[in-house]
Amino acid sequence: MHPLNIAFFTDTFLHGPNGVSSSLVLLRRELSRRGHAVWVVAPSLPGPRSEEPGVVRIPSVPYPPYPAQRLGWPVGCVLPGGVDVVHAHTPFGVGLAAARVAYRLGVPLVATVHVDYASYLHYVPLLASLDRRLGVLPRLMRLVYGPADLLLSPSEAARRTAMSYGTGRPVAVVPNGVDLAFLEAAPPVASPWPEGTRRLLAVGRLGKEKAVGVLLEALARLAATDDAHLVILGGGPERQVLLDRSHQLGVAGRLTVLPPVPFAAVGGFYRHAELLLSASPSETQGLAAWEAQAMGVPVVAVAAGGAVESVVHGRTGYLVAPGDAMAMALRAREVLADEGTRRFFARRAQDWACQGSIAAMAEALLEAYREAGALRRRRNCPTADSASRSTT
Asked: Where are the beta strands (DSSP E) in the chain?
Protein backbone atom coordinates (compact mmCIF):
# COMPACT_ATOMS: atom_id res chain seq x y z
CA MET A 1 0.00 0.00 0.00
CA HIS A 2 1.40 3.40 -0.99
CA PRO A 3 1.95 5.87 1.87
CA LEU A 4 -1.24 7.64 2.93
CA ASN A 5 -1.88 11.10 4.30
CA ILE A 6 -4.38 10.47 7.11
CA ALA A 7 -6.26 13.05 9.17
CA PHE A 8 -7.53 12.03 12.61
CA PHE A 9 -10.26 14.27 14.04
CA THR A 10 -10.77 13.86 17.78
CA ASP A 11 -12.03 15.75 20.83
CA THR A 12 -9.57 13.87 23.06
CA PHE A 13 -5.90 14.07 22.17
CA LEU A 14 -3.22 14.57 24.81
CA HIS A 15 -5.89 15.72 27.28
CA GLY A 16 -4.78 13.14 29.80
CA PRO A 17 -5.37 9.41 30.04
CA ASN A 18 -8.49 8.03 28.44
CA GLY A 19 -9.04 5.10 26.13
CA VAL A 20 -9.49 7.04 22.90
CA SER A 21 -6.57 9.41 23.44
CA SER A 22 -4.24 6.60 24.50
CA SER A 23 -5.19 4.49 21.49
CA LEU A 24 -4.65 7.37 19.06
CA VAL A 25 -1.19 8.13 20.43
CA LEU A 26 -0.10 4.53 19.84
CA LEU A 27 -1.88 4.18 16.52
CA ARG A 28 -0.40 7.36 15.13
CA ARG A 29 3.07 6.18 16.10
CA GLU A 30 2.56 2.77 14.47
CA LEU A 31 1.15 4.22 11.23
CA SER A 32 4.02 6.70 11.07
CA ARG A 33 6.47 3.83 11.55
CA ARG A 34 4.93 2.21 8.46
CA GLY A 35 5.55 5.33 6.38
CA HIS A 36 2.12 6.98 6.57
CA ALA A 37 1.66 10.63 7.55
CA VAL A 38 -0.91 11.22 10.29
CA TRP A 39 -2.25 14.67 11.10
CA VAL A 40 -4.39 15.17 14.20
CA VAL A 41 -7.12 17.80 14.37
CA ALA A 42 -8.15 18.45 17.97
CA PRO A 43 -9.64 21.22 20.14
CA SER A 44 -7.49 24.13 21.21
CA LEU A 45 -6.42 24.04 24.85
CA PRO A 46 -6.29 26.96 27.28
CA GLY A 47 -3.01 28.53 28.29
CA PRO A 48 0.33 28.70 26.48
CA ARG A 49 1.44 25.50 24.80
CA SER A 50 4.53 24.46 22.90
CA GLU A 51 4.24 23.62 19.23
CA GLU A 52 2.91 20.12 18.54
CA PRO A 53 4.25 18.71 15.27
CA GLY A 54 1.49 17.28 13.11
CA VAL A 55 -1.32 18.60 15.36
CA VAL A 56 -3.82 21.22 14.19
CA ARG A 57 -5.82 22.88 16.96
CA ILE A 58 -9.23 24.40 16.17
CA PRO A 59 -11.38 26.74 18.31
CA SER A 60 -13.02 25.04 21.28
CA VAL A 61 -15.37 25.59 24.21
CA PRO A 62 -15.32 24.03 27.71
CA TYR A 63 -17.36 20.90 28.38
CA PRO A 64 -19.14 21.60 31.73
CA PRO A 65 -19.24 18.02 33.17
CA TYR A 66 -15.46 17.81 32.70
CA PRO A 67 -13.84 21.25 33.10
CA ALA A 68 -10.53 20.00 31.72
CA GLN A 69 -12.21 18.67 28.60
CA ARG A 70 -12.75 20.83 25.51
CA LEU A 71 -15.21 20.45 22.65
CA GLY A 72 -14.01 21.54 19.24
CA TRP A 73 -16.09 24.01 17.28
CA PRO A 74 -17.17 22.52 13.93
CA VAL A 75 -15.23 24.85 11.68
CA GLY A 76 -13.23 24.08 8.59
CA CYS A 77 -9.48 23.75 8.85
CA VAL A 78 -6.54 23.74 6.53
CA LEU A 79 -4.27 20.72 6.59
CA PRO A 80 -0.77 20.83 5.11
CA GLY A 81 -0.39 18.62 2.05
CA GLY A 82 -3.02 16.43 0.47
CA VAL A 83 -5.28 14.22 2.56
CA ASP A 84 -6.19 10.72 1.37
CA VAL A 85 -8.60 9.75 4.13
CA VAL A 86 -10.37 11.52 7.00
CA HIS A 87 -10.95 9.50 10.17
CA ALA A 88 -13.38 10.96 12.73
CA HIS A 89 -13.09 9.66 16.30
CA THR A 90 -16.03 11.66 17.62
CA PRO A 91 -19.39 12.47 15.97
CA PHE A 92 -19.80 15.94 17.46
CA GLY A 93 -17.76 19.14 17.38
CA VAL A 94 -14.51 18.07 15.74
CA GLY A 95 -16.34 15.17 14.10
CA LEU A 96 -18.66 17.56 12.26
CA ALA A 97 -15.59 19.44 11.07
CA ALA A 98 -14.23 16.11 9.78
CA ALA A 99 -17.33 15.58 7.66
CA ARG A 100 -16.97 19.07 6.18
CA VAL A 101 -13.30 18.54 5.31
CA ALA A 102 -13.90 15.10 3.76
CA TYR A 103 -16.76 16.50 1.66
CA ARG A 104 -14.72 19.51 0.53
CA LEU A 105 -11.72 17.36 -0.43
CA GLY A 106 -13.77 14.53 -1.91
CA VAL A 107 -11.95 11.86 0.12
CA PRO A 108 -13.28 8.88 2.11
CA LEU A 109 -14.68 9.55 5.58
CA VAL A 110 -14.26 6.83 8.20
CA ALA A 111 -15.85 7.23 11.66
CA THR A 112 -15.18 5.11 14.74
CA VAL A 113 -18.04 4.69 17.23
CA HIS A 114 -15.99 4.70 20.44
CA VAL A 115 -18.86 5.31 22.88
CA ASP A 116 -22.28 3.88 23.71
CA TYR A 117 -23.94 7.28 23.81
CA ALA A 118 -27.10 5.98 25.48
CA SER A 119 -24.96 5.47 28.62
CA TYR A 120 -23.87 9.12 28.62
CA LEU A 121 -27.19 10.91 28.19
CA HIS A 122 -27.25 11.93 31.86
CA TYR A 123 -24.58 14.52 30.99
CA VAL A 124 -27.06 16.27 28.66
CA PRO A 125 -30.38 16.36 30.61
CA LEU A 126 -32.36 18.00 27.79
CA LEU A 127 -31.29 15.35 25.29
CA ALA A 128 -31.99 12.60 27.85
CA SER A 129 -35.52 13.94 28.33
CA LEU A 130 -36.13 14.17 24.59
CA ASP A 131 -34.83 10.65 24.07
CA ARG A 132 -37.12 9.24 26.78
CA ARG A 133 -40.16 10.92 25.23
CA LEU A 134 -39.36 10.87 21.54
CA GLY A 135 -36.49 8.44 21.03
CA VAL A 136 -34.28 11.07 19.40
CA LEU A 137 -30.88 9.41 19.99
CA PRO A 138 -30.97 7.05 16.97
CA ARG A 139 -32.08 9.93 14.75
CA LEU A 140 -29.25 12.10 16.04
CA MET A 141 -26.75 9.30 15.44
CA ARG A 142 -28.02 8.86 11.89
CA LEU A 143 -27.51 12.59 11.33
CA VAL A 144 -23.92 12.75 12.58
CA TYR A 145 -22.72 9.37 11.30
CA GLY A 146 -24.67 9.38 8.03
CA PRO A 147 -21.97 11.23 6.02
CA ALA A 148 -19.39 8.50 6.72
CA ASP A 149 -18.52 5.95 4.06
CA LEU A 150 -17.63 3.33 6.68
CA LEU A 151 -18.20 3.04 10.42
CA LEU A 152 -15.79 1.23 12.72
CA SER A 153 -16.35 -0.16 16.20
CA PRO A 154 -13.85 -1.58 18.72
CA SER A 155 -15.90 -4.72 19.52
CA GLU A 156 -18.76 -6.84 18.27
CA ALA A 157 -20.96 -5.45 21.05
CA ALA A 158 -20.20 -1.92 19.88
CA ARG A 159 -20.88 -2.95 16.28
CA ARG A 160 -24.38 -4.07 17.25
CA THR A 161 -24.96 -0.71 18.93
CA ALA A 162 -23.74 1.15 15.85
CA MET A 163 -25.95 -0.98 13.59
CA SER A 164 -28.96 -0.13 15.76
CA TYR A 165 -28.64 3.54 14.77
CA GLY A 166 -29.84 2.66 11.28
CA THR A 167 -27.34 4.80 9.37
CA GLY A 168 -27.35 2.46 6.39
CA ARG A 169 -23.54 2.42 6.48
CA PRO A 170 -21.50 -0.77 6.88
CA VAL A 171 -19.84 -1.28 10.27
CA ALA A 172 -16.53 -3.12 10.64
CA VAL A 173 -14.90 -4.22 13.89
CA VAL A 174 -11.38 -2.90 14.48
CA PRO A 175 -10.38 -3.39 18.14
CA ASN A 176 -8.09 -0.83 19.76
CA GLY A 177 -4.64 -2.32 20.08
CA VAL A 178 -2.21 -2.57 22.99
CA ASP A 179 1.50 -1.82 22.76
CA LEU A 180 3.16 -4.00 25.39
CA ALA A 181 6.60 -2.47 24.77
CA PHE A 182 5.17 1.00 25.42
CA LEU A 183 3.56 -0.13 28.68
CA GLU A 184 6.70 -1.92 29.84
CA ALA A 185 8.79 1.17 29.08
CA ALA A 186 6.87 3.20 31.67
CA PRO A 187 9.21 4.70 34.26
CA PRO A 188 9.18 3.16 37.75
CA VAL A 189 6.66 4.61 40.17
CA ALA A 190 6.50 4.26 43.94
CA SER A 191 3.80 1.79 44.92
CA PRO A 192 0.69 3.64 46.15
CA TRP A 193 -0.47 0.51 48.00
CA PRO A 194 0.33 0.11 51.70
CA GLU A 195 2.93 -2.59 52.21
CA GLY A 196 1.52 -6.07 52.76
CA THR A 197 -1.93 -5.38 51.26
CA ARG A 198 -3.55 -7.09 48.28
CA ARG A 199 -3.09 -4.64 45.43
CA LEU A 200 -6.34 -3.94 43.58
CA LEU A 201 -6.40 -1.40 40.74
CA ALA A 202 -9.09 0.40 38.75
CA VAL A 203 -8.26 2.71 35.85
CA GLY A 204 -10.64 5.16 34.21
CA ARG A 205 -12.88 8.15 34.42
CA LEU A 206 -14.96 8.63 37.55
CA GLY A 207 -18.42 9.06 36.05
CA LYS A 208 -21.85 7.61 36.76
CA GLU A 209 -21.64 5.42 33.67
CA LYS A 210 -18.58 3.68 35.15
CA ALA A 211 -20.52 2.36 38.20
CA VAL A 212 -17.55 3.04 40.48
CA GLY A 213 -19.79 2.65 43.54
CA VAL A 214 -19.93 -1.07 42.84
CA LEU A 215 -16.15 -1.21 43.23
CA LEU A 216 -16.45 0.24 46.73
CA GLU A 217 -19.15 -2.25 47.70
CA ALA A 218 -16.93 -5.09 46.46
CA LEU A 219 -13.99 -3.62 48.39
CA ALA A 220 -16.08 -3.50 51.57
CA ARG A 221 -16.91 -7.19 51.20
CA LEU A 222 -13.29 -8.09 50.50
CA ALA A 223 -12.03 -6.00 53.39
CA ALA A 224 -14.14 -8.03 55.83
CA THR A 225 -11.76 -10.98 55.44
CA ASP A 226 -8.80 -9.81 53.33
CA ASP A 227 -6.25 -7.04 53.71
CA ALA A 228 -7.20 -5.51 50.36
CA HIS A 229 -6.48 -1.97 49.18
CA LEU A 230 -7.96 -0.41 46.05
CA VAL A 231 -6.14 2.26 44.04
CA ILE A 232 -8.25 4.14 41.51
CA LEU A 233 -6.34 5.97 38.82
CA GLY A 234 -8.54 8.65 37.28
CA GLY A 235 -10.63 11.75 37.82
CA GLY A 236 -14.11 12.91 37.03
CA PRO A 237 -17.36 14.37 38.38
CA GLU A 238 -18.06 11.43 40.71
CA ARG A 239 -14.80 11.74 42.65
CA GLN A 240 -16.29 13.39 45.74
CA VAL A 241 -19.32 11.10 45.65
CA LEU A 242 -16.91 8.16 45.62
CA LEU A 243 -14.94 9.48 48.59
CA ASP A 244 -18.11 10.16 50.59
CA ARG A 245 -19.37 6.67 49.85
CA SER A 246 -16.09 5.13 50.99
CA HIS A 247 -16.60 6.72 54.43
CA GLN A 248 -20.18 5.43 54.58
CA LEU A 249 -18.98 1.90 53.82
CA GLY A 250 -16.06 2.14 56.25
CA VAL A 251 -13.38 1.58 53.60
CA ALA A 252 -11.91 5.09 53.30
CA GLY A 253 -8.65 3.77 54.75
CA ARG A 254 -8.52 1.05 52.12
CA LEU A 255 -8.98 3.39 49.16
CA THR A 256 -6.53 5.64 47.35
CA VAL A 257 -7.81 7.85 44.52
CA LEU A 258 -5.02 9.24 42.38
CA PRO A 259 -5.44 11.92 39.70
CA PRO A 260 -4.93 10.96 36.07
CA VAL A 261 -1.34 10.46 35.00
CA PRO A 262 0.21 10.74 31.53
CA PHE A 263 -0.44 7.65 29.45
CA ALA A 264 3.29 6.93 29.28
CA ALA A 265 3.27 6.43 33.07
CA VAL A 266 0.27 4.09 33.39
CA GLY A 267 2.35 0.95 32.87
CA GLY A 268 4.19 1.66 36.12
CA PHE A 269 0.95 1.18 38.07
CA TYR A 270 0.03 -2.04 36.24
CA ARG A 271 3.49 -3.30 37.19
CA HIS A 272 2.59 -3.11 40.89
CA ALA A 273 -1.03 -4.32 40.67
CA GLU A 274 -2.21 -7.85 41.42
CA LEU A 275 -5.75 -7.54 40.04
CA LEU A 276 -7.72 -5.06 37.93
CA LEU A 277 -11.38 -4.42 38.77
CA SER A 278 -13.94 -2.88 36.40
CA ALA A 279 -17.62 -2.43 37.21
CA SER A 280 -18.48 -0.35 34.13
CA PRO A 281 -21.33 -1.82 32.03
CA SER A 282 -20.83 0.80 29.31
CA GLU A 283 -17.42 -0.13 27.89
CA THR A 284 -17.35 -0.50 24.12
CA GLN A 285 -14.09 -2.45 24.46
CA GLY A 286 -12.53 -1.98 27.87
CA LEU A 287 -9.03 -0.92 26.89
CA ALA A 288 -7.78 -0.88 30.49
CA ALA A 289 -8.60 -4.60 30.72
CA TRP A 290 -6.48 -5.29 27.64
CA GLU A 291 -3.61 -3.19 28.99
CA ALA A 292 -3.72 -4.88 32.38
CA GLN A 293 -3.77 -8.36 30.89
CA ALA A 294 -0.89 -7.48 28.56
CA MET A 295 1.07 -6.61 31.71
CA GLY A 296 0.13 -9.93 33.32
CA VAL A 297 -2.61 -8.54 35.57
CA PRO A 298 -5.83 -10.65 35.73
CA VAL A 299 -9.16 -8.85 35.50
CA VAL A 300 -12.54 -9.13 37.21
CA ALA A 301 -15.08 -7.16 35.17
CA VAL A 302 -18.79 -7.13 34.46
CA ALA A 303 -20.29 -9.24 31.69
CA ALA A 304 -21.54 -6.32 29.61
CA GLY A 305 -20.49 -4.45 26.49
CA GLY A 306 -17.00 -4.94 25.15
CA ALA A 307 -15.71 -6.49 28.38
CA VAL A 308 -17.33 -9.78 27.33
CA GLU A 309 -14.84 -9.90 24.46
CA SER A 310 -11.88 -8.59 26.49
CA VAL A 311 -11.77 -11.06 29.38
CA VAL A 312 -11.76 -14.85 28.98
CA HIS A 313 -13.90 -16.04 31.88
CA GLY A 314 -12.04 -18.56 34.02
CA ARG A 315 -8.71 -18.12 32.19
CA THR A 316 -7.64 -14.47 32.21
CA GLY A 317 -9.98 -13.43 35.01
CA TYR A 318 -13.71 -13.50 35.63
CA LEU A 319 -16.89 -11.83 34.42
CA VAL A 320 -19.73 -11.14 36.84
CA ALA A 321 -23.23 -9.74 36.45
CA PRO A 322 -23.40 -5.92 36.25
CA GLY A 323 -23.94 -4.38 39.67
CA ASP A 324 -23.16 -7.60 41.57
CA ALA A 325 -20.61 -6.44 44.12
CA MET A 326 -20.74 -9.70 46.06
CA ALA A 327 -19.85 -11.75 42.99
CA MET A 328 -17.03 -9.34 42.16
CA ALA A 329 -15.60 -9.71 45.66
CA LEU A 330 -15.88 -13.50 45.57
CA ARG A 331 -14.16 -13.74 42.18
CA ALA A 332 -11.43 -11.34 43.30
CA ARG A 333 -10.86 -13.45 46.37
CA GLU A 334 -10.68 -16.56 44.18
CA VAL A 335 -7.98 -15.05 41.93
CA LEU A 336 -5.98 -13.88 44.94
CA ALA A 337 -6.46 -17.10 46.95
CA ASP A 338 -2.80 -18.02 46.57
CA GLU A 339 0.13 -16.91 44.44
CA GLY A 340 -0.01 -20.02 42.26
CA THR A 341 -3.60 -19.31 41.29
CA ARG A 342 -2.89 -15.66 40.57
CA ARG A 343 0.07 -16.57 38.38
CA PHE A 344 -2.10 -19.06 36.48
CA PHE A 345 -4.43 -16.23 35.54
CA ALA A 346 -1.57 -13.79 34.95
CA ARG A 347 0.21 -16.03 32.41
CA ARG A 348 -2.96 -16.68 30.44
CA ALA A 349 -3.95 -13.03 30.59
CA GLN A 350 -0.67 -11.97 29.01
CA ASP A 351 -0.84 -14.64 26.30
CA TRP A 352 -4.40 -13.61 25.45
CA ALA A 353 -3.79 -9.85 25.36
CA CYS A 354 -0.77 -10.13 23.10
CA GLN A 355 -3.17 -11.09 20.29
CA GLY A 356 -4.56 -7.54 20.35
CA SER A 357 -1.39 -5.70 19.35
CA ILE A 358 -1.24 -2.18 18.01
CA ALA A 359 0.39 -3.59 14.87
CA ALA A 360 -2.65 -5.79 14.22
CA MET A 361 -4.91 -2.79 14.72
CA ALA A 362 -2.93 -0.69 12.25
CA GLU A 363 -3.14 -3.44 9.62
CA ALA A 364 -6.90 -3.78 10.10
CA LEU A 365 -7.32 -0.02 9.95
CA LEU A 366 -5.42 0.29 6.68
CA GLU A 367 -7.66 -2.39 5.21
CA ALA A 368 -10.68 -0.41 6.43
CA TYR A 369 -9.35 2.69 4.66
CA ARG A 370 -9.08 0.71 1.43
CA GLU A 371 -12.66 -0.48 1.87
CA ALA A 372 -13.87 3.05 2.59
CA GLY A 373 -12.24 4.28 -0.61
CA ALA A 374 -14.00 1.58 -2.61
CA LEU A 375 -17.33 2.38 -0.95
CA ARG A 376 -16.95 6.08 -1.77
CA ARG A 377 -16.18 5.32 -5.40
CA ARG A 378 -19.28 3.14 -5.63
CA ARG A 379 -21.42 5.85 -4.02
CA ASN A 380 -20.10 8.45 -6.44
CA CYS A 381 -20.42 6.22 -9.54
CA PRO A 382 -23.28 3.79 -8.85
CA THR A 383 -24.01 3.26 -12.55
CA ALA A 384 -20.45 2.29 -13.37
CA ASP A 385 -20.34 -0.02 -10.35
CA SER A 386 -23.56 -1.76 -11.39
CA ALA A 387 -22.23 -2.21 -14.90
CA SER A 388 -19.03 -3.69 -13.50
CA ARG A 389 -20.93 -6.19 -11.37
CA SER A 390 -23.17 -7.20 -14.28
CA THR A 391 -20.16 -8.22 -16.37
CA THR A 392 -18.60 -10.42 -13.69
From this structure: 5-9, 37-43, 55-58, 60-63, 66-72, 85-88, 109-112, 150-153, 171-173, 198-203, 228-233, 255-258, 275-278, 299-302, 317-320
